[in-house]
Amino acid sequence: MSREVVLSARPQGTPQESDFELRDVPDASPAEGEVSVRNVFVSVDPYMRGRMTGVRSYVEPFAIGDAIDGGAVGRVVESSYDGLAPGDWVASMLGWREQGVAAGAQLRKLDESVAPPSTALGVLGMPGLTAWVGLVDIGGVQEGETIYVSGAAGAVGSTAAQIAKLKGLRVIGSAGSDEKVEWLRSLGVEAFNYRETRAKDALADGIDVYFDNVGGEQLEASLGALRPFGRVIACGAISRYNDERPQPGPRNLGFVVTKRLRLQGFIVRDHSDRFGDFAREVGPWVRDGEIVYRETIVDGIENVPAAFAGLFRGDNVGKMLVRVAD
Amino acid sequence: MSREVVLSARPQGTPQESDFELRDVPDASPAEGEVSVRNVFVSVDPYMRGRMTGVRSYVEPFAIGDAIDGGAVGRVVESSYDGLAPGDWVASMLGWREQGVAAGAQLRKLDESVAPPSTALGVLGMPGLTAWVGLVDIGGVQEGETIYVSGAAGAVGSTAAQIAKLKGLRVIGSAGSDEKVEWLRSLGVEAFNYRETRAKDALADGIDVYFDNVGGEQLEASLGALRPFGRVIACGAISRYNDERPQPGPRNLGFVVTKRLRLQGFIVRDHSDRFGDFAREVGPWVRDGEIVYRETIVDGIENVPAAFAGLFRGDNVGKMLVRVAD
Predict the structure, then answer these.
(1) What's the CATH superfamily of A126-269?
(2) Which residues of B are less than 8 Å from A216 in CB distance?
(3) Would you say residue A58 has pLDDT above 90?
(4) For residue A158, what pLDDT band results from cuts at 50, 70 and 90?
(5) For labelling, which of A54, B167, B171, B308 has a CA lying 20 to 30 Å from the CA of A299?
(6) Best mutation target, B222, B235, B256, to test chain A (most A CBs within 10 A)
(7) What integer is the mean pLDDT of B305-310?
(8) Chain A nearest CA to B290, separation (Å)
């Protein structure tokens, strides 16, 4: 037997622990081509909130009673797939489970000697690819430009901010605590605490690109601060995900015309063909310490819902993970 | 002596005739390289509203007491410029004046045998180039796609709708009167009266591209109707130009991320290098009647302010012009 977390109610507003429950499930054996995996780290990501609403978006919503799929890393227990053996580290979409079975071909084998396996859920995984694709393919950032990254201490934001620095941009970043601001400053980011400083003031010099992870007021301030021909990399809007009703958009969207702005949204899974290029550029930076990462690790599968809810309070510095096994 | 229209007060909300006054000015003679022109048609365009607010945008604001610069066509009276002779038709930026002097090199000589000179202010001028650049360079429209054009009976919109038809798109258009809707239907546009039909309902089948001339509710409805990877050609927002206070933006801007939308603003004067390509493609369509155009002509320079104000009530079908001489 092992445990998994299932959706028991659609969250109203901020997700509550009572929206989820633990369920015991019998262990399954892998069929031909499959592998059973014991998860070690499971990922909680802001985008999962959208799948809990029951509204069809770019991914199917979770049904009530579904276990929550998502990123996870773990070790192979039993394999009927040629490329994987017991003990191998793999990244999967097995989600909020202690143990599960997946097609071997859908797993990514991780080399522990290159980077800690948990980085496959963060700086060298989906959040890292999101940051890199956003900057390179969506934003087309150029050396010498100024970029503003909101949610800059998060998994995506902290990677985006550091990649932008390495590409020769001036980087301004916001976060919601002094601790996060201090960390960002240590990385060379001109950081401010958005709970204390208005983005409008922090961006008064103007920006060329806005990497939007939060939406709302930060987006409005950025539209005001963007220079002509500026771009918005529309990655996410964590400030909006728990809204019970749609909130009005920025009052200054007219700047899109007058300043010839481009707002472009993207979803990382459309860009999975870029993973190799991403890993070739960013992997060495992580290995050599030119990009650093932080992880906020919560222990125990029973604490996955609380860790998930904590994302929306900004409890995490860097990537939020739940360790479900040693 | 001749007359010109000057800005006497910054409009509050909808422009009023009292915001302008007529002024007599002595005739000037052209210096070397210059030409004096008697205007025949002067153009009133929605973008001019922005220059009246006193806020610096992509063009300098008009000062109180300034004559209003803008598009005009007229005939050369006296020339000290080699390429132009008295009687020649020229397009200029001489604006709301009966007569003026301009550098010959800044005038575009018009061939009356190709098209009526007034078209240089409409279908074959700035509004036509706006429509074409928006579709081709900003929207990247493709045969088989569905496009929604708001303000579709206006100078830009009616040209955009017809170019899109000729490029093999399905075209939905909105306008504010039954007369306009009838005209658009005669052009093969699936037209609706936005005062009677909600855009949300008219666009229920989905769209790939939205050519936005009006902003506001039409933009919100379009964000809802756009299919994944849809584009917004952000050309203008006439519904917003007279707002005294910034109004909230669309409540569904989150679709930019989930549907991977691209919103891109543009200003036609950044694209003047495309005029030749535009004229080569669209000129023959106009000549051969594959693109038709309408003009709403008001007589007398004293009526320029009323004609301008009428743009915001939708008084015009097609291009609004004021005839200031025979």
Answers:
(1) NAD(P)-binding Rossmann-like Domain (3.40.50.720)
(2) none
(3) no
(4) very high
(5) A54
(6) B256
(7) 96
(8) 30
